[in-house]
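Input:
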Amino acid sequence: MKKSLGKGTHAMPTPVWLVGSYDQAGKPNLATVAWGGVCSSDPAAVTISLRKSRYSYDSILRHGAFTVNIPSQAFAVAADYAGIASGKNEDKFAQAGLTAVKSDLVDAPYVAEFPLVIECRLLQTVEIGVHTQFIGEIVDVKADESVLDANGLPDPAKVLPLIYSPTNRTYYGLGEAVGKGFDIGKELMK
Amino acid sequence: MKKSLGKGTHAMPTPVWLVGSYDQAGKPNLATVAWGGVCSSDPAAVTISLRKSRYSYDSILRHGAFTVNIPSQAFAVAADYAGIASGKNEDKFAQAGLTAVKSDLVDAPYVAEFPLVIECRLLQTVEIGVHTQFIGEIVDVKADESVLDANGLPDPAKVLPLIYSPTNRTYYGLGEAVGKGFDIGKELMK
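Output:
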């Protein structure tokens, strides 16, 4: 017998992604989001949701682009800071000691120090109550060579992404590998 | 200098959610998804993306409802199985030894054995290339008492959700707590 908890956003895991964009004056900014995820394989696309009050809201619409910057665990403080401060009042890159790199592909900056970044062209927005969902087509993924596996793809055990839990407002690290996808379930096949 | 990896869906972390729905004959079915996330706080809402070829696609549209069932790490094999098999040919609940409970609130079944389930009313669909995104308003969240924290909310360290990495098709467990949100970043505030 389960206990009813009501209508909260008590889902897990949620990501910790820093969304990069340029404001009206061309200043690079970051917004930390946990509301988001991959939404399509072809075109490869991700979503992030922002309230209209977030400073990045107009920036993304104006430039039609954003980046998703995936911090490793070592950048937890910077990630949290970028979710508390507003780019309206602060230069978050400078304050967090991060370097903004201008993307060659989309009109948005990415974080030099983070191991994995995704450059997105704004495809579509969807209004959902207090949040607007931005759907971004992935134009390129860039990673530090040091986090790549033998197949040349990002290795989670090297990227060490953060996981956010909205229920207790806590950041977690990645745990141990549990098994291979499209593999361990085969034992239950008829 | 980062290495360009092209247009892949190399994002992380992504969730491991089993989407519950009834098919045309009223048989409960499950589909494992990693493409999804929270998309709005008010109304509380989540998204999941499915290809049109997935058996659950018509089920969700027909019944206007789905559930998001969050397996603990102990159910990794069942979670992977539900992502490999098709409900067209198999009774996934029976095959995985899981119990379908009819939701009182929406026309979809949830998994009795999983610690955390989210009941959703279909709000909207969004076409994004090969995937359709289903946006579900959270009508209720239900959890086992054993996974609740002192505030009566799901404790990730008790739920032990799985994390999926699309880059290497591997399931991971949740790691250690790294810090509190809206807190550890304060030290960088001006």
